[in-house]
Design brief:
seven-stranded mixed sheet, alpha/beta
Length: 300
């Protein structure tokens, strides 16, 4: 059985179909490493830190966290087992805000590695005290270990979905102590539309050299399913699959059995609000969950 949830670190939800054997191995794990999306996730951990945090940092938290991904992951799991009652799916939702430490990063990677991967750092620059670094690293280590325990329970033909959401536009600002002021300027009404619009769905499956690691049959099925909704699926248009992320390790460990996907946040939020906790539209989530579940079924 998967491990229990870890308060403030990880929510574990097991979704079994009516025909699934209780002792059977898992068919699918859905990991949401940036699943801390509630203001309470931010404030609870911020209250435990001793580092001086930038004023208004909660605004960066909401811009940068994967709002809607937890709801979509849960809906995909439920739809998949409804369509295939013999299957079992485990949903892993991280509750550690990436505003402080990122549970999809190789924490000890060099800054140049994060830049090459077009990703934010693993440990944020406003975390300055030894006590905070130790506290956050301990939480990170517990999360990573628990994910390893769950993925070890996958069946030989089991698979892993790494699910993310991202803001509609690529806003190019430095992640430094002025991050909040920089973001406020970037999202001014006369400036926000100038930033590049991201794909509605982007499969993060190509390495920097162009090598494709995403499972072709599943990606093709996802593209066909979403085309019926008028949604295009891009191929690593936003980010590469890069060794500075833990997603890279998951994908390399399971050739053809792991898929990393970004979903544009305005497809899930109702409406998209960059600086506040977003309401996630149930109808929007259901609209995407069904085609995702059908596409993932191609693994079997």
């Amino acid at each position: 059985m998967p491990p229990s949830s870890l308060p403030g670190i990880l929510d574990v939800t097991l979704v079994r179909g009516a025909g699934a054997r209780p002792e059977a191995a898992l068919d699918l794990v859905i990991e949401i490493p940036h699943g801390a999306t509630a203001t309470a996730d931010f404030t609870a951990l911020a209250a435990r830190l001793t580092s001086p945090l930038p004023d208004g940092l909660v605004e960066f938290f909401h811009v940068n966290t994967d709002a809607g991904a937890p709801e979509l992951g849960q809906a995909i799991a439920e739809r998949l087992v409804a369509d295939a009652p013999a299957r079992s799916v485990c949903v892993l939702r991280c509750r550690i805000p990436r505003t402080f430490i990122d549970c999809n990063r190789r924490i000890d990677a060099a800054p140049a590695d994060f830049q090459a991967g077009k990703v934010t750092p693993g440990l944020m620059p406003w975390i300055t005290t030894t006590e905070d670094r130790a506290l956050l690293r301990a939480a990170y280590d517990r999360y990573v270990a628990a994910v390893g325990e769950v993925t070890a329970q996958l069946a030989p033909e089991g698979a892993l979905l790494l699910l993310h959401s991202y803001a509609p536009r690529t806003v190019d600002v430095e992640v430094d102590l002025q991050i909040v002021d920089n973001l406020r300027r970037a999202y001014l009404p006369d400036r926000e539309p100038s930033w590049p619009l991201r794909p509605e769905v982007d499969v993060i499956g190509r390495e920097l050299d162009g090598t494709r690691r995403a499972p072709a049959a599943v990606v093709d099925a996802l593209r066909a399913e979403l085309a019926g909704l008028g949604i295009a699926v891009a191929d690593s248009a936003t980010y590469p699959l890069h060794p500075s992320t833990l997603a890279w390790g998951h994908v390399m460990a399971r050739p053809g059995r792991a898929l990393c996907v970004e979903v544009r946040r305005d497809l899930l939020a109702d409406p998209f609000e960059p600086f506040a906790e977003m309401r996630i539209g149930a109808a929007k989530v259901a609209r995407l969950a069904a085609p995702f579940a059908r596409a993932l079924g191609r693994w079997w």
